Each structure stands twice: as structure tokens, then as C-alpha cells.
Amino acid sequence: MPVWDEVHPATISVQRMRAGDHCFVSYGDDESNWDVLTTFAWTGLARGEKVMVFAAPQVSDDEVWSRLEADSPSMARVRARGQLVLTSMRSLIRPDVGFTPERQWQRIREETALSGRQGYTGLRTFIDMHWVPDLDADIDVMMHRESHAGHLFTDGSYSEICAYDRRWFDEDVLARMCRAHPVNLLTRLGELRAVHGDGSLRLIGEADLATGEQFGAAVGEALTRTADARKLVVDLTQLSFLSVRCADDLLRLVRAADGHDRVEVRCESGQLRVLRALGEHGSARLVLTGMGRRC
To answer: Are the C-beta atoms of residues 82 and 94 closer than 8 Å to each other?
Structure first.
């Protein structure tokens, strides 16, 4: 995992995106990119948003539709009514030929306003950044765009993912672009990331059968690391999925942590119900704190 990706303070899974988020994601293979795009698009459609997809210029529209399950009745309906649109950066900025942040911002504001007039709850765009070499855009100009685009997102009616191919962009560019975005996305579906802090453990992504061993190891490591302090905060609120097995493993590890006086587990309402159903009262040191969902 690149350091610039690991240390971003606001990393979430694509399923946890909120309206108004401006997100960076990187990919090292095409399949993980398609997975993120598909999840992002279908989530927006389900929320009543208009979705615009700016695929890599070398990818045909037919392939994009195929990846988005073009033969499904639901996709046929949203395509017919214009709720899902395939376009390109070249088309967006016309009649301009060269890219400028100002022209792109203007067009995004226009498209956001149009989506509202069309009755949608907002606009979300997935922008594959392969358009940068296609339009021969300057990287420093792009950096300015990414770091000064906050005005597009203030009212929550516009959301955006900027997807960077790690096989094409230099590490320095990726690091700078990641830092320029308020939100960083996990690179693939099904991923679990553990962020160890001073007296805390934050878990992001999916805790399920595939990542259960990693989940248990992260909790165990955090308990060992905080044994001298005798207290630990475990934050589950950025998990998009918590299996019953992983929840049970968490309770078992906390019950066995005799060196701790207090283990606070912060969780959203669904996670709270699961933990209580499994019997959180098995340990006096365990404190469950209900928190609101991020999305």
C-alpha cells in the first residue's frame, strides 16, 4: 500500500460516500476500477441522483454499458430516461479545445443545475483521469483544479470520484492528488483496512469471511499495543459490512483482554444491534457507543 494512500485522514469505502463528497481513488488493475465505478453508479441511481461517467478515452461506450449490466431492465430504464449518461471531458468542455479549471467548473455547475431541474436529487460523476494525457493537460493545472474545487461541493448536490491509474501516473503526482482531495477511497471492494492510532483502532471497509482473519489480528494487535494504557477505542463506524462472525470475534477478544479496564467500541445502529444480540454484557470492560452512519 502506498504511504500516501495509507496516511490519508479521511479514507472510506465507496459504499460510504455521501452527497457532496469529492473523492480520490487509485487503481492498479482494470477490474478493481470497474468494481468501484459500478458500485458508485448504482448507488447514485438508487438514491435518485443523475450519474455521469467519464470513462478512460480508450474505453468504448459499449464496454462501459456492458460492465454496468446494460442488458438489465433497470439499466435500460435509467439509460432511456437519461439518468445515466456516458460522456467525455472533451465533450464536456466544448466548444473549448484546451482544458481550464474555470471552464470545467462552469460546465459542472451547469450540469448540476440541470439535474435538479430534471427532478434528480443531485449529480454524481465518475471521472477517469486518463483524459489528462488525452487532452495534453498540464499536471500543475490539474493540481490547481483538484485543490480549489471545494465550491462545487458545498451544498451537497454534487459528488465526484477522480480515478487515477497507478500504472500511468507517477508516484509523486498520485501523492499530490491524493492529498488534494478531502476524501480517499479504498482501492477495491471487499477490502479491510486497519488504522492504528494512539489508543485507538479504526476499521474501514468490509469485515466478513474473506477478511475475518485480518479483522481479528488487527483487534488483537490493538489490544496488545494498548495493554499498558489499559484502555482502547475501536471505531467500527466506517465499516460498510460487519459479519456476525467478526462481531463475535471482537466480543471474544475483548472478554479475554484481562489487562484492560475499558474497551470502547463505537458503532452505528445496525452494528450496535448485532453486538447486543450477541451479548455485549459478557464483559464489564466493554462499552458500546452508538454513532450515526456516515451515509
So the answer is: no
